[in-house]
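Narrative of activities, Objective 1.

The group set out to show that a structural description can be obtained from nothing but a protein's sequence at a throughput compatible with the screening campaign. Below is one input-output pair from the validation batch, recorded exactly as produced.
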Amino acid sequence: MNISIIGLLVLGIISSGFFINDAFAEVTENSAYLIEGSGFAVTEDIIRLSEIDIGLSSHQQSGSSIDFVIEDGFVTLDNEDFVISELEGKFLREGRYIRINGNVESSVGFDTTISFFGRLVEESKDASVYGFTGRITTPDNSYKIIYTAKLSQLTNIVEITETTQEEEILTIRILPDSSTQGIASSYIPSGEVREPRLSDTDPLRLRYYSQDRITLEPGTSVVFVNEDSVPHSIESGKENYGDRYNPYTPDGRIATEDIAPGESLTITFDEMGFYRLYDPTYPWMEIIVYSFPDVDNIVLGTTKNQQGN
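Output recorded for this entry:
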């Protein structure tokens, strides 16, 4: 009953358009974006949790529309995953609307079609929120979807200059005290005193890495330097939303050894696609890498995990 009520409320917001502001999302040609969202897939008999997590690249603009191609990602129905196979879309009216259509494939090979339509709800300087409705059609069922999703652009915040090979390698710092920020012991009981940490000056901004979203070309190397007081390792995988005991499932593409305090390790991203990196020992430490060709190596450092240099 609670899920039904929430779904109806979300649908009411999307349908009314009451929260759509007068501005529009800034979408541009030949750029990289992430769409991350969740909601519900509904039939007459069942309501299933559903998520979308995709990376896309925009193409040339025609009038007020920009075509885009889904490079990588997945859609879920409860614990069932559907990976991208043939999916494309379009930004409409300078980003006020998003249309996504095509096919995704289940783990057992069954083809499933999706048809989503998103409407801009609200935006900030670095991201926009959309309400999505549409359909997921499997061989067994046709689900009506109700999503709230964030569109974030991977824009030129830090560019790697073309000088020497050493200077072209991007360095990301694992920041001091990042290992303690996601556990109960990171909070101070009443009456106790401890040395101040980096996050104390701004308690709403957790700081794990010097940058937490990166766009790069396949074959690019990234150096991770551990400035924390404990070892860290990095794996790639899929996030299991809502599962506090098993938050990630490794995908086998990236798995490093421990990086000792004061040491560094280089990772080369050979494959094109979307990487969600995490520390298996400290799973709240997450970094996203979007690897696709024909773009400058750039870093988005404006999210909550960023610390200024």
